[in-house]
Design goal:
The chain is α+β, with helices and mostly antiparallel strands. It has helices spanning 16-28, 54-64, and strands spanning 8-14, 33-39, 44-49, 70-73. It has a four-stranded antiparallel sheet with strand order 2-3-1-4, covered by helices on one side. The longest helix has 13 residues, at 16-28.
Length: 79
């Protein structure tokens, strides 16, 4: 696994009920990305993605759009 500084970060706003589902799906791919909740009140999670798997994670997120609702946000919107 790449060190954190090598990771690609993506922030998502999701429904609270979907946070654990996203984590579960990503954990199933073991090591491609990790999800952590950075603002539980606003339901914002951060994905730390191994650079070699960025395309795969993008495809997984595109597939998840058929099951859950999420919005990609930039760091300026957090806080």
């Amino acid at each position: 696994m790449a060190e954190k500084r090598d990771m690609v970060e993506r922030d998502l706003r999701v429904h609270k009920k979907d946070i654990s589902y996203i984590r579960y799906v990503l954990e199933g791919y073991e090591g491609i990305a990790y999800a952590t909740t950075i603002d539980p009140e606003k339901s914002i999670i951060k994905l730390l993605i191994a650079p070699d798997f960025l395309d795969l994670v993008d495809r997984i997120l595109a597939d998840l759009k058929h099951e859950i609702t999420y919005t990609a946000i930039d760091n300026g919107e957090i806080g």
